[in-house]
Specification:
alpha/beta, 6-stranded parallel sheet, 10 helices, globular
Length: 283
């Protein structure tokens, strides 16, 4: 049994269902590493239809619970785990990002995009943030990106090759896909990895064959559950994110905080797509 004391995060999840994150206090027993009174957070690691979290009391499986560092507020803790674990899986577990790599991040103004910027920079990579326009370019540079490419304003392939001095990008972490993906794949380096973790364009991904054959590229789909439903991978992700949060090298990005009785306004604000980072509902 988990009793909440703090904050929830609301999430848009394709195709328009609502997910969660939570900051809660453990009050159950027989939970191994947890003691009554521990401050913990919830990691999305089960189907949204299995457990409810919009309430004062939530019953959650122990594998979905994680202690958070003492340097975080409850709001920060609630805003951390989904985005950082998602980015960890794509960049570290499957992307194998290395120091000096050029990494392209699609949807860079999203919470996962900003988390990915931080993780890629921690690993010593060069970050190329994608945004539809240059309107948010300065903000992305402030958040740690080294370069910004506007997908509706720039020649994406030419720009990526220019940035990498013609060598191409090593890793792509993209929630968009669609026909525009070909422009990125055409600018990838030998043995490059393209990881798609969403379908924001709603169109099938365009995959040019000759770059894949000639450069031995890897194109794969990825979802958070590949990490959170495998105990050893989840344990590694928890440790990586915990250490990053405790050291201050990972910092959750909170756009706006709503009171619990403003839940409707919070969802309306999320639907407006104005936010940069997380929307938190405080209890």
């Amino acid at each position: 049994m988990m009793y909440r004391e703090g904050a929830y995060v609301i999430e848009p999840v394709f195709p328009a269902t609502m997910g969660y994150e939570g900051a809660v206090v453990a009050v159950g027993d027989d939970t191994g590493e947890f003691q009554i009174g521990d401050k913990v957070s919830v990691i999305p690691s089960f189907m949204f239809t299995e457990y409810g979290t919009y309430g004062e009391v939530a019953n959650l499986p122990v594998h979905a619970v994680v202690k958070h560092p003492e340097n975080l507020t409850m709001e920060q803790a609630a805003a951390s785990w989904m985005m950082f674990v998602t980015a960890y899986g794509g960049l570290i577990e499957f992307g194998k990002v290395q120091k000096g790599d050029f990494v392209v991040l699609g949807g860079a103004t999203s919470s996962v995009g900003i988390a990915a910027i931080q993780i890629a920079k921690m690993q010593g990579a060069n970050v190329i943030a994608l945004s539809r326009t240059h309107a948010k370019g300065d903000m992305l540079l402030e958040k740690g990106a080294d370069f910004v490419v506007a997908t509706t304003e720039d020649d994406v392939t030419a720009k990526l090759l220019e940035i990498t001095n013609g060598k191409g990008v090593n890793l792509v972490f993209d929630p968009v896909g669609g026909q525009e993906a070909a422009k990125i794949i055409n600018a990838m380096a030998q043995d490059g990895r393209y990881i798609i973790y969403g379908a924001l364009s709603h169109d099938d991904i365009a995959v040019p064959v000759f770059p894949i054959l000639g450069k031995h590229l890897t194109v794969r789909g990825y979802e958070l559950f590949e990490i959170t439903t495998v105990p050893e991978k989840l344990a590694q992700a928890k440790q990586f994110v915990y250490d990053g949060l405790a050291s201050g090298r990972l910092k959750p990005e909170i756009d706006k905080v709503f009171a619990f009785d403003e839940m409707v306004k919070a969802h309306e604000y999320m639907a407006s797509n104005q936010q940069i980072g997380k929307i938190v509902v405080k209890v």
